[in-house]
Amino acid sequence: MITKAALMDAIAGTNRGLLATEPQKQAILAAIATLEDLNPTPRPVEASDLLNGNWRLLYTTSKALLNLDRIPLCKLGQIYQCIRTETSSVYNIAEIYGLPYLEGLVSVAAKFEPVSERRVQVKFQRSIIGLQRLIDYTSPSIFIQQIEAGKKFPAFDFGISSDRQQGWLDIAYIDNDLRIGRGNEGSVFVLNKV
Question: What's the predicted TM-score (pTM) here?
Answer without folding.
Answer: 0.92
